[in-house]
Description:
Layout: E1 4-7, H1 13-26, H2 34-43, E2 53-57, E3 60-69, E4 78-85, H3 94-108, E5 113-119, H4 122-130, E6 134-145, E7 161-165, H5 174-185, H6 198-206, E8 217-221, E9 224-233, E10 238-246, H7 255-269, E11 274-280, H8 284-293, E12 296-307
Parallel strand pairs: 4-5, 10-11
Antiparallel strand pairs: 1-2, 2-3, 3-4, 5-12, 6-11, 6-12, 7-8, 8-9, 9-10
Helix pairs in contact: 1-2
Amino acid sequence: MTVMIRELRPDAPADLKGFARVRHLAMPYILVTPDSLVHDLTHLHPDAHYRPLVAVADGEVIGTAQVHLSHESTEPGQGNINVYVHPGHTRRGVGTLLVRAAEEHLAKHGAARLYSWVLDEPGNRAFARSHGYRPSRSAYFLRLDLANGTLPPLQDPPPGVELRRASDYADDPRPLFELDAETTSDEPGDVDFEFTDYEAWLEQTWRHPLLDPELTSVAVVDGRPAAFTAARTDGGTRYSTGMTGTARAFRGRGLAKLAKNDSLHRARAAGYTDAFTGNDTGNAPMIAVNEWFGYEVCATEVRHVRELG
């Protein structure tokens, strides 16, 4: 089998469908669609040097790699490589070819440290170790059966709190940007991020095709967005919360739980059957919230790091 590694072609439907298919088979907990791939390719900041790769054999995409720099990090030189191979084509050297091409690209653009998420399975961890990556922090993927599960009952917001949708901010989403920036900066992680570019956030987050403004719920206190849960949907049956957070001044009041419960009920009513989310294993408060909703851990991944000499 001859394998060719090349860049994903945004104008090639077979590439886009093949990339999304491999990602779904290897990592069904994260939403990826052809439209989302095109959007990322055309809207990510140039400083990210974003370069998705595909491994092609006999005209079929059998492997993928998402490759970019963390350009929003407060520390320069942080690179990211996430490699996924079609389950029917593993242990044939496809992953190694993708890793080599990705590392060369990032090194050329100044990466000094590389991060990669790896499913917590013996073969995957051994693969990462053989390429010089050492394990770091870990995270859970969680799934909730919206079709058959039982959600907590809806509750009326407490006095002074109002539930809104992200679509209510279509004319001026800056308040949501400020809330997203504050909560994201407090997320556990190996790399510190600082969101200061509002225009970039509009392009990369607010206008992203997976974001569902109608299902994204916002808890508002005295006119100010205080907590939210950002909903993503794939246009089919899968729903995902990419971020749930509360502004520092309003924490400890159950506002994130209130917003997420509202979003989940409306997602179920809209016909979505599978809800996914993810948590750092050290984020005990959010894990407890998700368990309260009925989410169950369906997989664990471990972030690995490699220092480039």
